[in-house]
Amino acid sequence: MSATSYQTLNKGELTQLLDIAREAIRGHFSSGLPKSPEYSLYGRKLLAPAACFVTLEVSGQLQGCLGSTAAHSPLVLEVHNKARASAYQDRRFMPLTEEQLSQLTIEISVLTTPKVQEIDSEQALIDFLSVNKVGVILTDNHQQALFLPQVWKKLKSPTNFIKQLKVKAGWNANYWSSNIKVKTFDVTSIKGKFY
Fold this sequence. Notes:
Blueprint: H1 11-27, H2 44-47, E1 52-58, E2 61-67, H3 75-88, E3 104-111, E4 115-117, H4 122-131, E5 135-140, E6 143-147, H5 158-169, E7 181-185, E8 187-193
Helix pairs in contact: 1-3
């Protein structure tokens, strides 16, 4: 994977991103319009365009996860926007409530640039993933699904990982096509409690 500035975020920078996500979620419950991050407070790495996902869990259960795979905006703004979207716009879940905040954890994953893999069969992908525990994006025509590298903690088998990713895309678990495109990526991440 090509080295880019946002892959080298240190603990302090990641902690700043966690604070931005907390403020974005907190702002929903306070009066007035939510405030975007004040750019002057952050260093150049956090102001560089970067792609990220924000994952929310309440009592260990997924409550929202939205993000992007392409860098369009400064990272601080991406984290702010994706935190709000994950909390209140992920259609798979009811919007986050104030009562849930005490049990809320936030995980921010900053993505490397996805890299196209020349994979010609499902078995070749299984073989690749047996030694590379990375994030994966599968695309075929207009359907796409993504798993962050953290999903390996729950789906340890490459075969199961791929099957579940295909189901997420809306395909049959046994589906495979020569048209499927495979991209992989890594993340730098931080996880913390809301309070």
